[in-house]
Amino acid sequence: MFTGLIEDIGTVKSVSSSKIEIESKFNDISKGDSVAVNGVCLTAVSVNKNVFAADYSPHTDKTTTLSKLKQGSKVNLERALTLSSRLGGHIVSGHVDGAAKIGKIEVLKEFYRVKFLCGKNILKYCANKGSIAVDGISLTIATVCSVGFEVFIIPETFNNTTMQLKKADSEVNVETDILAKYIEKFAKKESSGISPEALKEFMTE
C-alpha cells in the first residue's frame, strides 16, 4: 500500500516487456520489498547497491506504460507504507486502471493546470474533488468532463516528480480511488442468493 507521495525520481537502467531495472537513491530496499514505479506496485527480485530489478506480468505490460520506458527514462518512486508511516496523500494500491494522455499543461501564477484525456474505464470512477493517482502522484481532481479530467498541481509537487518532464501527448499511468470501486460494488443490486429464512437459521445456530 502507498500514499501517492513521491520519495525519489529514479532512472531506468534497462527495461523489456517483462522486467525493469531502476537506479535510485534508496539504500534500504531488500529483495521482496514492494516499490511503486510510476504508480505500479512492483516487487524487487534483486538488489545491487542502489539498483533494483522487478518483474511484471503481461497484464501489467498491457495496462501500464512500463514497457514504453527507455534506458535513461525518469520514474517516480515510492516505498511501501510501514505501520509507523504517516498517511499523507490518499490510499494508493499500486494497481493501475489504465493509461491516460496529457492534453495540456498550463503554467499559472501559483500552480500548474494539467488536463488529461482518458477512457470511460477511468472516467466512471472520477469525481470532482475526488482523489486520483497519476504516475503514482496523489492528486485531487478539479473537474471532470466527457473526455477526461483536470487537476491543479502545486510547484512543490510538480518540480519534485516526473511531471516536470511531461508535455502534451505524454502517457501516464492512472489509478482511481479504490473507495469509488467499493462503492460501485456495494451499490449494484445483485442478489446474494441467501433467503431471509436461511440467514435467520444461520444466525441462531
- The helix fraction, in percent, is 10-25%
Please tell me the overall pLDDT.
92
Span between N and C termini? 38 Å
CATH hierarchy, class of the largest domain: Mainly Beta
The proportion of residues in beta strands is 35-45%
Tally the helices: what do you get? 5
How many β-strand runs? 12
> What is the strand arrangement across the widest sheet?
1-2-5-4-3-6
Uncertain ranges: none
Q: State the order of secondary-structure elements, H for helix, E for strand.
A: EEEEEHEEEHEEEHEHH
Overall SS class? alpha+beta
- Whole-number radius of gyration? 19 Å
Task: Specify the overall morphology.
Answer: globular
The CATH level-2 architecture of the largest domain is identified as Beta Barrel
Brief account:
It is built from five helices and twelve strands. It has 205 residues and is an alpha+beta fold.
Provide a descriptive summary of the structure in words.
By secondary structure, the chain is an alpha+beta fold. The protein folds into two domains: 8-79, Elongation Factor Tu (Ef-tu), domain 3, CATH 2.40.30; 98-187, Elongation Factor Tu (Ef-tu), domain 3 (Beta Barrel). It has five helices and twelve strands. The protein has helices spanning 58-63, 120-123, 155-159, 178-187, 196-204, and strands spanning 8-15, 19-23, 34-37, 40-48, 51-55, 74-79, 98-107, 112-117, 131-134, 137-144, 148-153, 171-176. The strands form two sheets. Strands 1-2-5-4-3-6 form a six-stranded antiparallel barrel. It has a six-stranded antiparallel barrel with strand order 7-8-11-10-9-12. A hairpin with a 4-residue loop joins strand 7 and strand 8. The longest helix is centred in the C-terminal third of the chain and has 10 residues, at 178-187. The mean pLDDT is 92.
